[in-house]
Amino acid sequence: MGRGKIEIKRIENSSNRQVTFAKRRAGLVKKAREIGVLCDAEVGVVIFSSAGKLYDFWTPKTTC
């Protein structure tokens, strides 16, 4: 039993939209961190909110 498919469209309610944005942003950053650790890759993520606020994440540069 899996999750049902959702229609990808703009969320009209602004508070629901902000909650969804925050949850998905956290999920993207978590996945970026995981791929950086698992694959020993340098990963960078840049996200701009609808209000123009910048959120970023970079894995630390490793030296050999």
UniProtKB/TrEMBL annotation:
Major site of localization recorded for this protein: nucleus
CDD domains: MADS_MEF2_like
Swiss-Prot/TrEMBL keywords: DNA-binding, Nucleus, Transcription, Transcription regulation
Compartments where found: Nucleus
GO annotation, biological process: positive regulation of transcription by RNA polymerase II
Molecular function (Gene Ontology), one example: protein dimerization activity
Signal peptide as annotated in the record: none
The protein, known as: MADS-box domain-containing protein
